[in-house]
Write a structure and sequence with these properties.
The chain has helices spanning about 5-25, 30-50, 60-80, 100-120, 125-145, 170-195, 195-205, 210-215, 220-245, 255-265, 275-290, 295-310, 315-320; strands at about 85, 90, 155, 245. By secondary structure, it is mainly alpha-helical. Strands 1-2 form a two-stranded antiparallel sheet. A two-stranded antiparallel ribbon has the order 3-4.
Length: about 325
């Protein structure tokens, strides 16, 4: 096993081991923190696909995170109330089954990514950044002005959704679901990056003109990656809503987009396990520094500056010894 593979396995093992040890020690709060880290890592895996491998600096991935969260919240609340979702001329019943909610969340997020990507991918550089931010903020303000589902106050659905008869209220079982989906997301990301599609995506990042010269269409490649990225982030949003049994417009805000980007940068842009290491480090810092000062994010900002200046490969890149991705 190479050093990089050993480091990647150790990072994932550390996350899972922390949850298991905390469960055995009777510390459900720590298990919940590990679950939160796994969910944020999955959102980071989605962003890393376009940011790390496609070179697309999206500052609007909160749009997909929030869409996934609202899909879970709306379906759950309607299942609890027994009232169908009125979508003229259809009336759709709610659901408390995760195996129904997850595909809906991914489908809606993927559709949003397709529509948004078809427009924003015609831009580049700072214009792309601002366009993705603008779409996310449009959805954020729409959610604030949507009184049917809580508006600015958000939507609570109290009961955690079901999965194949499991007691999803048990912290370790819900962690197992989140960690399992994270592992699947990492596996999908690894397959994409190593496939011809992934090589074409990296070629469009390195030199779009040369990619066109060898027969690659950058727009189609980037759009497909953007849609897959949005679906993974939407799935993470559905899990996050279920974890808290609450969804609000903050899941769609630019702050959330920034946090997801922090996970990727902190862990290592373009590194498979970068989002896992970054999300884990972020949760630990939030927990430890949050008890020291209300301004703990300023300390995190200093840490990010140091990483960018001294360790551009992030946590994973440093542990890999500056090796390949």
């Amino acid at each position: 096993m190479s050093r990089a593979a050993a480091v990647d396995a150790a990072i994932l093992g550390l996350l899972i081991g922390t949850a298991l040890i905390a469960h055995l020690a009777g510390e459900p709060f720590i298990v919940t923190l590990a679950t939160k880290a796994a969910i944020f890592a999955l959102a980071g895996v989605g962003l890393n696909l376009v940011l790390g491998y496609g070179g697309l600096v999206s500052f609007g991935h909160a749009a997909f995170f929030g869409i996934g969260g609202y899909a879970a919240g709306i379906l759950s609340s309607h299942a609890m109330s027994g009232q169908p979702i009125a979508l003229w001329p259809l009336a759709i019943h709610g659901s408390a089954e995760m195996l129904v909610i997850w595909p809906v969340a991914m489908g809606l997020s993927g559709l949003a990514a397709l529509l948004i990507g078809a427009l924003v991918l015609r831009t580049s550089g700072v214009y792309f950044i601002m366009a993705t931010l603008a779409f996310a903020q449009m959805l954020y303000y729409f959610a604030i002005s949507w009184p049917a589902y809580g508006g600015e106050d958000g939507l609570s659905f109290y009961v955690r959704n079901r999965f194949a008869g499991l007691d999803t209220f048990a912290p370790i079982r819900f962690f197992a679901l989140a960690a399992g989906l994270l592992a699947l997301g990492l596996g999908l990301s690894a397959m994409i990056v190593r496939a011809r599609f992934g090589m074409a995506l990296r070629a469009t990042r390195a030199n779009p003109a040369r990619a066109v010269a060898v027969g690659i269409r950058p727009f189609g490649i980037r759009l497909a990656a953007f849609v897959i990225s949005g679906m993974l982030t939407g799935l993470a949003g559905a899990l996050y809503a279920d974890l808290n049994r609450f969804v609000s417009p903050t899941m769609l805000s630019w702050h959330m987009s920034g946090e997801i980007m922090v996970f990727v940068i902190l862990g290592g842009v373009g590194r498979l396990m970068g989002p896992v290491a970054g999300a884990g480090a972020y949760i630990v810092l939030e927990h430890l520094l949050g008890g020291v000062s209300d301004y703990w994010q300023a300390l995190l900002g200093v840490l990010l500056i140091l990483i960018v200046l001294r360790a551009p490969g992030g946590i994973v890149g440093t542990l890999h010894g500056g090796g390949g991705r």
